[in-house]
Design a protein that fits this description.
alpha+beta; two-stranded parallel ribbon; globular
């Protein structure tokens, strides 16, 4: 879990450093490693040996965290479905560029979520529907 979450936090900082504002970023992360008993540097997460703290500054108000991370919620966020996902959804149109950085422990055709799984065909179907809906 540690390397996966550390990479998400690092990706957030890379995207921000390249000028993407927080209001255009939606994160999904479990948030159970920074303060874990097994973390020798409480409250600090690094994604490379002797690296800087990539956890610092990662927003929680722009994130779906912990048990709220489900395949259904992820797809609803992508579709902009506030009824299913809440207020934190993708609000994009036909001229927007959307970057999705997804890390998991899945296998071919399968995407693993903390407590569930999603099939690639569901993600592909959602992306195709987003294209149709513009």
């Amino acid at each position: 879990q540690y390397p996966k979450q550390a990479d998400v936090y690092h990706a957030y900082h890379v995207v921000r450093a390249n000028g993407i504002p927080d209001e255009n970023i939606i994160l999904f992360y479990y948030d159970d490693i920074a303060n874990s008993k097994q973390n020798p540097t409480k409250g600090i997460v690094v994604n490379s040996p002797n690296g800087t703290d990539v956890y610092k500054g990662v927003p929680k108000d722009r994130a779906i965290i912990g048990k709220d991370i489900t395949p259904e919620r992820f797809l609803a966020v992508l579709k902009g479905d506030k009824q299913s996902a809440g207020d934190l959804v993708l609000n994009s149109g036909p001229n927007d560029h959307v970057f999705i950085y997804l890390i998991d422990h899945g296998s071919p055709g399968l995407i693993m979520f903390p407590r569930d799984e999603m099939y690639a065909e569901d993600l592909v179907g959602t992306l195709k529907q987003m294209h149709v809906d513009k």
